[in-house]
Task: inverse folding
């Protein structure tokens, strides 16, 4: 795992030539890349979310497409369209932005449900069905969807079924005072920096296979089960209406394996599970109306569950 760890840190350093701070975001993109998952990004505009994703695509030489979600967007604008070819006198299927490795769905909650649902097959099955034909998406395929929690007018709520498709929910934070100063003083230099290629698609596939082999002890499996089952205990935690599904358990396991590899270990520790719990679980928990009225957040509940769950 030392080779994978060195390559990952080299990748993070390369992206760091352009992006100041945002360590959680950069870590989560690596985890999603090596776990085969997707990320929901949340916080205010102007925090370099788009530029970070673009920088990763350059460092990996992968295709990158950005889609601005708007209320008038149609599924055909996202996935495909039939264009008439006057020379051939026939309609030709034209593939749209979804056929890329990194797809940034900017302000996903500004598009209506019919557009959001068009992403479900892509995210879960890694394929697009057009009429009677099915097209496989190129690997790796990652959807990074942003939403602005500050604006509610003209937005559409993401259904729970779609939220569950996202491996991680990353809260993109403001830079620290030192990082803000660095952004100001080095802005011109960072504009002209060229990002070098770090590793290839084949390397990514090889890394995924090696990470699949990261050892997980029975005590760690039991620890994950206790965390997930605690969320379903309505008597102990009445603030939770619906707990986590087995998809959440698998997501927690997958991300903990990748985190162990980032740290250069061939085995998972309970601390890896705890570190990833917030990012994996916060968007999958459904709070009761009473809890929402009392401003109890999903992160508050995760903190309580982790504090109450023993590590053997």
Result:
């Amino acid at each position: 795992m030392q080779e994978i760890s060195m390559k990952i840190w080299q990748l993070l350093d390369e992206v760091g030539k352009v992006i100041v701070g945002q360590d959680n975001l950069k870590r989560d993109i690596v985890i999603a890349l090596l776990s085969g998952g997707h990320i929901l990004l949340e916080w205010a505009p102007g925090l370099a979310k788009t530029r970070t994703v673009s920088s990763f695509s350059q460092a990996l030489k992968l295709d990158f497409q950005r889609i601005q979600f708007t209320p008038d967007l149609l599924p055909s604008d996202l996935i495909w369209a039939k264009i008439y070819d006057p020379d051939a006198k026939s309609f030709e299927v034209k593939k749209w932005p979804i056929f890329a490795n990194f797809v940034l769905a900017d302000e996903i909650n500004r598009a209506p449900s019919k557009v959001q649902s068009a992403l479900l097959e892509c995210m879960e099955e890694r394929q697009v069905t057009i009429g009677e034909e099915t097209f496989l998406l190129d690997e790796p395929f990652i959807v990074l969807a942003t939403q602005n929690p500050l604006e509610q007018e003209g937005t559409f709520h993401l259904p729970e079924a779609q939220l569950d498709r996202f491996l991680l929910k990353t809260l993109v934070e403001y830079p620290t005072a030192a990082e803000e100063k660095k952004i100001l003083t080095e802005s011109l230099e960072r504009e002209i920096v060229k990002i070098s290629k770090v590793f290839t698609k084949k390397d990514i596939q090889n890394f995924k296979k090696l990470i699949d082999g990261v050892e997980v002890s029975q005590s760690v499996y039991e620890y994950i089960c206790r965390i997930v089952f605690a969320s379903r205990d309505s008597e102990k935690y009445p603030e939770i209406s619906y707990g986590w599904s087995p998809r959440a358990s698998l997501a927690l396991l997958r991300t903990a394996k990748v985190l162990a590899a980032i740290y250069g270990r061939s085995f998972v520790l309970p601390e890896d599970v705890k570190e990833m719990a917030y990012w994996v679980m916060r968007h999958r928990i459904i709070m009761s109306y009473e809890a929402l009225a009392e401003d109890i957040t999903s992160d508050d509940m995760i903190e309580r569950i982790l504090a109450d769950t023993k590590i053997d």
Q: What stands out?
A: The mean pLDDT is 84.
